[in-house]
Amino acid sequence: MNTAQTTSPSANQPVDQYMTAVGQAARAAATLMAAASTAARNNALLALGRLIREQAASLKTDNVQDVSKAQANGLSEPMVDRLRLTDKVIETMAQSCEQVAALPDPVGEMTNLRQRPTGITVGQMRVPIGVFGMIFESRPNVTIEAASLAIKSGNACVLRGGSEAIHSNLALWKLVQDALVEAGLPATGVQLVQTTDRAAVGQLITMPQYVDVIIPRGGKGLIERISAEAKVPVIKHLDGNCHTYVDAEVDLAMAVKVTDNAKTQKYSPCNATESLLVHAKQATAFLPLIGQVFADKGVEMRADTRAKAILADVPGAKVVDATEQDWYEEYLAPVIAVKVVDSLDEAIAHINRYGSHHTDAILTTNHPNGMRFIRQVDSASVMINASTRFADGFEFGLGAEIGISTDKFHARGPVGLEGLTSLKYVVLGQGEVRS
After folding, report:
1. With contact defined as beta carbons under 8 Å apart, do 164 and 83 qualify?
2. Using CA atoms, how far apart are residues 338 and 287, in angstroms rounded to an integer?
């Protein structure tokens, strides 16, 4: 196929000119990416997986530059750890390319076909969005995640990683370009912003003529800035204040197991439970059980008056008074807010008021209560008798995700390949005319 421009614009020019050139190249490449066959896109992904393995030593050499600079600048060890391209991380990146290649291709799928009385057949076809921009922090493996999903979904993309990972991102992006060219696709189908100048971000998010959607992936400050300043649609979530609600009718052993997993399996993800609501009928039975689990794991409980009174006798428990702010908080740490409620209605009202509309779960043996919860809780993912930690593209069977959306239009919840596509109406006729 015609690969149009085969090299990305040079960053050796003023930022506004550079970003305009990047946008123009992306828009041109989007047409070619959308027209590419499934086989070509899959071949690019398989080539990328192979190149990542072949260039592992070189990738680690480039990565050392970023890690050393981060340490010299006093970056915290958890942040430095996110930067590292270990053998395990490199192999995971390679495998993820192969896994995305194996996923069903959503592009071109025809749905909802129906014949009208006039004789025409009307349906919808799934098509790429066009160009998406992704702004992310720290983890260089996100370069590969975003690139592979863009390639599979037939989109062009412009990636802007954090300055702390610039050498690693550039090295990975070079492999993406090589893989695209090897498969006969435009190298500019995936572009990385090569300057660390923050002005580049400001321009990327205000180019609706070139960019169709922006996906920020990082801290709340970054996402708030992008949401406030963008002139193109944004797919995002700000907070992950996820709730687990223990209903009046519940299997206590199951409730303890699921609540423990939802909070302590990993503290830092956005789908970890941050607030625990317990029906008053189960509070005296459930709270000492889960309180002991949390005490043993060093989880601080910020409790309302009734919950605190029950938890006070748990050996080793760290229990403090909850403030109003605690009901809103995303801790991303071994801390959880705990509240006793008197009804399912109160639990639903609390979640809809204080939650972040990300993921919320009910633990119950009462089927009607479970169904009412998932109908009335206004969140992107709602669950019955399952850990909030399942709110993930891979766990939902999407194969991969580019992020989580708490928006209500286009994409909501984990955003996988379908979330990077849109629908257009198609009409199939045999010469029909409207009378």
Report:
1. yes
2. 9
Task: Give the sign of the dihedral formed by CA 119, CA 124, CA 127, CA 129.
Answer: positive
Q: Which residues pair with 405 in a beta bridge?
A: 413
* Count of residues making up the chain: 435
HSE-up of 76 (CA within 13 Å, CB side)? 3
DSSP class of residue 326 equals: G
pLDDT 10s digits, 116-147 = 999 999 999 999 999 999 999 878 999 999 99
User: pTM for this one?
Assistant: 0.88
**What is the 8-class DSSP label of residue 234?**
B
Residue with tokens 């229990």: 319
pLDDT tens figures, 162-175: 999 999 999 999 99
Distance of alpha carbon 53 from alpha carbon 57, whole angstroms: 9
For residue 8, the 8-state DSSP code is P
- Tell me the one-letter amino acid at 5: Q
Q: By percentage, how much of the chain surpasses pLDDT 90?
A: 87
Q: What integer pLDDT is reported at residue 410 of this predicted model?
A: 85
Burial of 97 (0-12, 13-18, 19+ CB in 10 A): buried
E strands in 203-308 = 213-217, 242-246, 273-279, 300-303
Mark out the alpha helices in 318-432 (DSSP H runs).
344-354, 367-376
- Facing residues of 275 across strands? 243, 337
CA dist 166 and 53 (Å) reads: 20
Q: Dig out the tokens for 90 from the structure.
A: 């490199």
Handedness of CA 303, 304, 307, 308 (dihedral sign): positive
CB atoms within 10 A of CB 8: 22
Distances (CA, A) of 361 to 37, 71, 268, 322, 342: 41, 40, 18, 21, 17
Sheet harboring 110-115: ordered strands across? 110-115, 121-128, 421-428
In what helix (H) or strand (E) does residue 392 lie, and over which residues does it extend?
A: none
State how far the Cα of 232 lies from the Cα of 211, in Å rounded to an integer. Answer: 7
Q: How many Å apart are CA 115 and CA 422, to the nearest integer?
A: 22
343: left (phi over 0), alpha (psi -120 to 50) or beta: beta
